[in-house]
Amino acid sequence: HDSPTCQLWEGTKTKPHMLQHPLTSRVGRQAVLRILGTRGFAAKHGDPFPTGIKQPVWATVNSETMSAANPAQLSNLCAGKWEGAKENLDIVDPMNGEVFIKMPNTKGTEVDRFVASAASCPKTGLHNPLKHPERYVMYGEIFHQAGHELSRPEVMDYFAWLIARVMPKAYYQAWYEVKVTADFLKNFGGDNCRFNAGGIHSSGDHAGQETRGYRWPFGPVAIVAPFNFPLEIPGLQLGGALMMGNKPTLKCASTVSIVMEQFVRMLIHCGMPPEDMDMIHCGGRSMGELIKKAPFRVTQFTGSSGVAENLAKELHGKIRVEDAGFDWKIFGPDVIDFDYVAWQADQDAYACSGQKCSAQSMCFIHDNWMKAGIVEKMAQNASRRKLQDLSIGPVLSHTTEEMLAHMNRLLEIPGAYVAFGGKPLENHTTPKQYGMLEPTAVFVPIREALKPEHFGEVMTEIFGPFQVLTSYDDDSLDLVLEACERMSHHLTAAVVSNDVRFRDKVLGHTVNGTTYHGIRARTTGAPQNHWFGPAGDPRGAGIGTPYAIQLVWSCHREIIQDHGEIPKGWKQPLPS
Question: What kind and span of H or E run contains 418?
Answer without folding.
Answer: strand 417-420
